[in-house]
Design a protein that fits this description.
alpha/beta; 4-stranded parallel sheet
Amino acid sequence: MVQLSGDESPEYTDNLRNRLEQLKIQFNRRVEIWKAIRVTGINSLEAMKIYNVDKYLLDSNAKKSYGGSGIAFDWKLVGHYLKHGKKNHTRGNIEIGKK
């Protein structure tokens, strides 16, 4: 699995997908691509329509950090996210039972 947590473009992920497909032929093993999306609102989730990846990681939008900030994002946005049909994993500050 390859995890992308930066500002990679859709073109970058397409090129990576092509290279990984070549490795699949050579080693008979598929490598998944996971892309972190920094959740700032509904519009940030629209990025999931343009990336050719296997799974997304939803993360908070900390100004000086890519993940690991301890800041939770707005979980109400997850319903919108699930409409896109991608399997997902979440990371960041998960606060179960807190509003």
